[in-house]
Design brief:
This protein has one domain. Helix content is 71%, strand content 0%. The chain has seven helices and no strands. Helix 1 packs antiparallel against helix 2, helix 2 crosses helix 4 and helix 3 packs antiparallel against helix 4. The longest helix has 32 residues.
């Protein structure tokens, strides 16, 4: 019951935050937001945990590991690379921003720690998980070639750290992306290691 209540609160918070962020209540629909990893990862988690509420038998520990990895990236990248600019521009302190970038990642990580059965992950899973953000990056590269600016930000790239014009060219940008990808892979194996450690030291509580 605690798990169901926890997940229901999560689904409600993220659903409200996404509705506000897309400005549906104002009669608009900011569909260009679908070019942002933050939005895509939060939508994926919303779908996953909605499914977990109504069809929990379809949820697997490996799938939850993947979804936890994806949303953890959202929180880490935002906190370390994007939040300072949002604070300076006054875009930080609003409900949807806090929920999508901080509350949602933390709640998903806690769900994985507290409720997800451990010991089911494979050593190759972090490599497979890495394909998700890399596929997003590939999509952005293709989109930047064939489409115009995203919304009103004046760039074909949703984030400055993947914009060659901001990073000083394609070479420095790709080097930065490679460094970030290595960090993501390390994150994946950290999740894998925690999975094994929790199974070892608390086997009766989370198998």
């Amino acid at each position: 019951m605690k798990k169901l209540i926890y997940r229901a609160i999560y689904v409600a918070l993220v659903a409200v935050a996404l509705v506000l962020d897309f400005e549906f209540l104002q009669g608009r629909a900011n569909w260009y937001y679908l070019n942002y990893y933050t939005i895509l990862s939060n939508i994926a988690c919303l779908v996953f945990f909605t499914l977990a509420l109504f069809h929990p038998q379809r949820i697997t520990p490996r799938a939850e590991g993947a979804i936890t990895f994806c949303i953890a990236i959202t929180g880490i990248i935002y906190a370390t690379m994007l939040a300072p600019a949002d604070i300076a521009e006054g875009h930080f302190f609003n409900f949807e921003n806090i929920v999508l970038h901080y509350v949602a990642p933390i709640m998903v990580i806690l769900d994985w720690l507290l409720f997800c059965p451990k010991g089911r992950l494979r050593t190759t899973d972090p490599l497979l998980w890495l394909c998700i953000p890399l596929s997003y990056f590939g999509y952005i590269l293709v989109r930047s070639t064939f489409a115009g600016n995203i919304g009103n930000i004046g760039s074909r790239f949703p984030y400055g750290f993947i914009d060659p014009a901001i990073q000083g060219g394609w070479g420095p940008m790709l080097q930065g992306v490679a460094f970030i990808a290595l960090g993501m892979l390390a994150l994946g194996y950290l999740i894998f290691l925690l999975d094994r450690l929790i199974l070892r030291f608390a086997p009766s509580g989370n198998r």
